[in-house]
Design a protein that fits this description.
The chain has helices at 23-41, 61-74, 86-99, 129-140, 152-168, 186-195, 207-222, 266-279, 286-305, 310-317; strands at 8-15, 48-55, 79-82, 102-105, 118-120, 144-149, 174-178, 199-203, 233-235, 254-257, 321-324, 327-330, 343-347, 353-358. Helix 1 (23-41) runs parallel beside helix 9 (286-305) and helix 6 (186-195) packs across helix 7 (207-222). The chain folds into 2 domains: 8-123 and 263-330, Response regulator (Rossmann fold); 129-262 and 342-358, Response regulator (Rossmann fold). The protein contains 10 helices and 14 strands. By secondary structure, the chain is of the alpha/beta class. This is Branched-chain amino acid transport system substrate-binding protein. It comes from Rhizobium halophytocola. InterPro entries: Leu_Ile_Val-bd, Peripla_BP_I.
């Protein structure tokens, strides 16, 4: 719409898989987006309402492009909030670029991408993998075993981890991949037991991640050398959603994220209280919060711009700072990536992450790793006093 009248309806596409290998993550994201839409539509001060157009690709990357095109061309959606995997994102990008729409992508990703038709609200490697390895290397050692789902996210995070490990003076003992959604992980466990890495970097997604954590917990019960306190599983993409129904297999793993339910900040406390008053108390996750944040920022921008024109919205949101559950958030006008704080959490049996460290300020995204660098060298003595600073070469929002 070029200009808004009183309570105009704006259709937005919600493109998440609510069935398939990573369905739980998709359902969380849809819940978060729908909660934000409900808030927007109940606000009498806004001259518009959002109408969600929900499509379920079923975890099949090949279906994303067709569903995105249908949402844009048939249902007249100019904004697509969605996709989880990098595979699905890359299927959708040509569609939004060709049609002049805008993709709101709010999941961690491997970087090495920027588009004038996408806003990246999830962390890239200098905001997740580098802080994770900076924390893990001095505490556990520099001999990781890398496992991942067999697609872009797994491959690229494995590649970057290998380069960072080599640069720090460590050695990646092995890289192994399984098909997206596969639960056949025993061969990984057997090799890990034989090679005894210092830790396991898991780039697995959805049901594959759950199966691996269960199998690794069984290994730890059989051999105390593989208890998480000794050799943890670490990741850049685990969420509270991934820990559901794991029991003791959920305990002791380390992950980095831009959001945890137990994040002790004024912004998170206020957000959780507001949601609880309106929708009832629930445990939140980064997929829920990130999708909610995307819809909320879009609504703020449409209200200010007086239009949902993607070009106008993109120019506006990259020139503003928004209050979010993560704290103040800004998006770089050159890369279209958000500046984000990195948090480290350790999981417990209750399916929660206890926050164990945080960067002091939002880290400017460096999606092509032009300036980013590790803070630790494995030639240095290990220290238990290391924290998560923004890397010295990275810009930090003051």
């Amino acid at each position: 719409m070029d200009s808004l009248g009183q309570r105009d309806t704006i259709r937005i596409s919600l493109l998440y898989s609510s069935t398939g290998a990573y369905a739980a993550l998709g359902r969380e994201a849809i819940d978060g987006a729908m909660a934000a839409i409900a808030e927007v539509n109940s606000d009498p001060a806004l001259p518009f309402r959002f109408e969600p157009v929900i499509a379920d690709p079923g975890g099949s990357a090949e279906r994303y492009a067709a569903l995105a095109e249908e949402a844009i061309m048939r249902n007249q959606c100019r904004h697509v909030v969605g996709t989880i995997t990098s595979w699905s994102r890359k299927e959708v990008l040509p569609i939004v670029e060709r049609s002049g729409a805008l993709l709101w992508y709010a999941f961690p990703h491997e970087g090495y991408e920027a588009s004038d038709h996408a806003l990246y609200l999830g962390a890239c490697p200098n905001q997740h993998l580098i802080p994770l390895l900076d924390y893990v290397f001095p505490r556990f050692g520099g001999r990781p075993f890398v496992v991942g789902s067999n697609y872009i996210w797994g491959w690229e995070i494995g590649r970057i981890a290998r380069e960072l490990t080599d640069a720090a003076g460590g050695t990646v003992l092995s890289e192994r991949y399984v098909p997206l959604g596969s639960v056949e992980v025993e061969h990984l466990i057997e090799e890990i037991r034989a090679r005894k890495p210092d830790f396991v970097l898991s780039n697995l997604v959805g049901s594959s991640a759950a199966a691996f954590l269960k199998a690794y917990a069984a290994l730890g019960r059989a051999d105390s050398e593989f208890l998480p306190a000794r050799r943890p599983v670490v990741s850049c993409n685990a969420t509270e959603t991934d820990l559901q129904d794991l029991g003791d297999a959920a305990e002791g793993h380390i992950t980095t994220s831009i959001y945890f339910d137990r994040l002790d900040t004024p912004e998170n406390h206020a957000f959780k209280a507001r949601l609880a008053d309106r929708f009832g108390a629930r445990k939140l996750s980064s997929p829920f919060v990130s999708a909610h944040m995307a819809v909320s920022i879009l609504a703020n921008a449409v209200a200010e711009a007086g239009t949902d024109d993607p070009k106008a919205i993109r120019q506006l949101v990259t020139a503003r700072r928004y209050d979010t559950p993560l704290g103040p958030l800004s998006i770089d006008p050159k890369t279209h990536h958000a500046a984000l704080r990195s948090h480290l959490g350790r999981s417990n049996q209750a399916g929660e992450f206890e926050v164990i460290d945080s960067s002091p300020s939002p880290i400017m995204a460096d999606p092509y790793l032009v300036h980013a660098q590790m803070q630790v060298s494995l030639a240095e003595p290990a220290s238990s006093e290391r924290h998560l600073p923004a890397a010295k070469s990275l810009k930090v929002i003051q």
